[in-house]
Amino acid sequence: MPNVKKWRKKKIAKHKHKKLLKRTRWQRKRKK
User: Fold this and answer.
1) Helix (H) or strand (E) holding 7
2) Would you call 5 helix, strand, or coil by DSSP?
3) pLDDT at res. 7
4) Cα separations (Å) of 14 from 2, 9, 18, 29, 30?
5) Rounded to whole angstroms, what are the CA distances from 23 to 5, 10, 26, 30?
6) Closest C-alpha among 11, 17, 10 to residue 25
7) CA 20, CA 17: separation in Å to the nearest integer?
8) Rounded distance, CA 12 to CA 26, Å?
9) Dihedral sign for Cα atoms in the order 16, 18, 21, 27
10) Sign of CA dihedral 21, 26, 31, 32
């Protein structure tokens, strides 16, 4: 069970990172 929890946390972190990247891209477009 602990292994599954660790994997889940990693997946969530990756997803959050992707969202952050998308956000910065949008902000850049708005600035231009």
Assistant:
1) helix 2-31
2) helix
3) 67
4) 19, 9, 6, 23, 25
5) 27, 20, 5, 11
6) 17
7) 5
8) 21
9) negative
10) positive
> Angle at the Cα of 5 (from 15 to 13), degrees rounded to 5?
20
Cα(2)–Cα(30) distance, integer angstroms: 43
3-state secondary structure of 1: coil
Amino acid occupying residue 2: P
pLDDT digits (tens, 9 = 90+) for 8-32: 667 766 666 666 666 666 666 665 5
Q: Which two tokens stand for residue 10?
A: 């990693």
What is the model's pLDDT at position 24?
65
Alpha-carbon distance of 3 to 14, in angstroms, equals: 17
